[in-house]
Amino acid sequence: MSPSIHTPSYYDSYPPLLRPNNNPIHDLNQDPNPLPDPNPDPIPVIDFQNIDNDAISEACRNWGVFRLANHGIPDALLNQLHGRAEEAFSLPFDSKHALKSCTAMAYFWGTPALTPTGETVERGPTPPADMKWFEGFNVLLNQLAQQLQVEDPVLDNFRLVLDEYGRHQSRLATTIFKAMAENLNLDQNLYESYLSPSTASMRIYRYLKCPLPVWGLNAHTDSTVLTVLTHDEVGGFQVCKGDDEWIDVKPIPNTLVLILGDLIQAMSDDKYKSVKHRVKANKYKERISVGYFVFSAVDAVIQSSMYKPFTYADFRAGVQQDLKTLGYKKVGLGHFKLPHASP
Ligand SMILES: O=C(O)CCC(=O)C(=O)O
Ligand SMILES: [Fe+2]
User: Annotated Gene Ontology MF terms (predicted)?
Assistant: First the structure.
């Protein structure tokens, strides 16, 4: 008998457990993809070239999310970012998996529960219903330029574009945070420790075609001060308005979506909302998104009338505890809530 020859297939880039041939229910071409809704979404838009503090204040209080237009990131760079990410994800799974403990650019798949250095929080085998149909790279921006030596030209090009994109994000986040801090009358001496772009990380996701009726990413709030997302045209990102109204955020080319995280909610004495968001899984199309996550300095003490003083290090330790025991962030800001502020 001749030895079986393995013909490389597109799905060699997928984590083995998420390949269609390992999922008999994976029937990719059965129904047509539903048509997108032609109506615009109601997400507020902020013009970065003409910042209106009142409009920012309104969006932060009522939504916790807005779209950023005229952000000054060249379209060519955004296109390159998506192109390079696509190339990196198309590498064979083993080449990506080799980076799973590479702190500057750590590869992960199947779960968003990561340690601060990008390694998967181990909790024993994940049942398929909890498995997330994605893979990604967790990038620590301050390590990307100096610490990461990769020989593969695809990964090296990816690193270069991430570095450039990250510098734009740090510029945008600093300016937007300043407008928010002015609106909140925060002490100017706190600005630098409350928003520390040197702590920033990025996550680049490829959501794979998903055969199961599960969420691409479950509803959560971010543990950040601010998060800035760029999405491809596939869609599926939703934010929660009020208690339970889920709104589809339309993918609009070359705009960014900025969401407020838990840390700014505390800094604002709960006037601003850390918005819940989630991602719908898609059976037919892969989706690429890039998130920039910026935090406070790890040892900066966050003062709030609604919470006990805490540092980002304290906050992160609470989240890691939840990830280890439950697999998801449960308590978050609740760890620090003052009794008089509880409902
Ligand atoms: O993929 C996305 O659009 C959202 C990612 C996200 O919410 C996160 O990583 O916290
Ligand atoms: Fe998120």
Answer: metal ion binding; oxidoreductase activity, acting on paired donors, with incorporation or reduction of molecular oxygen
Q: On the CB side of 190, how many CA atoms lie within 13 Å of its CA?
A: 18
Residues within 5 Å of ion ligand 2, judged at the Cβ atom: 222
Measured from the alpha carbon of residue 112, the closest ligand is 1
* Lowest-confidence segment of 193-197, 206-210, 261-265 by average pLDDT: 206-210
Looking up tokens 């083993």 gives 94
Question: Is this complex's ipTM strictly greater than 0.90?
Answer: yes
Token code pair at residue 129: 């219903």
Residue 94 CA to ligand 1 centre (angstroms): 24
Residues near ligand 1 (Cβ within 6 A)? 112, 203, 205, 217, 222, 229, 231, 237, 277, 279, 289, 291
Residues in the chain: 343
For the chain, how far is it from start to end, CA to CA, in angstroms? 72
What is the pTM (predicted TM-score) of this model? 0.94
Say how far apart CA 57 and CA 235 lie, in whole Å: 27
Q: How far is the CA of 43 from the centre of ligand 2 (A)?
A: 17
The structure tokens listed for 70 are 């005229």
Ligand nearest to the CA of 234: 1
CA dihedral (275, 281, 285, 289) positive or negative? positive
136 and 163 in contact (C-beta within 8 Å)?
A: no
DSSP notation for 192-220:
HHHSEEEEEEEEEEEEPP--SSSEEEEEE
- Name the closest-CA residue to atom 2, ligand 1: 289
Q: State the DSSP string of 45-73.
A: EEEGGG--HHHHHHHHHHTSEEEEES---
Q: Tell me: the pLDDT tens digits for 252-273?
A: 878 899 999 999 999 999 999 9
Taking the centre of ligand 1 as the mean of its atom positions, its distance from the CA of residue 5, in whole angstroms, is 39
Q: Which uninterrupted H or E stretch holds 230?
A: strand 226-231
Distance 25 CA to ligand 2 centre (A): 28
Neighbour order of strands in the sheet with 134-140: 45-47, 65-69, 256-260, 226-231, 287-295, 196-207, 134-140, 105-109
Q: How far does the centroid of ligand 2 lie from the alpha carbon of residue 5, in Å? A: 42
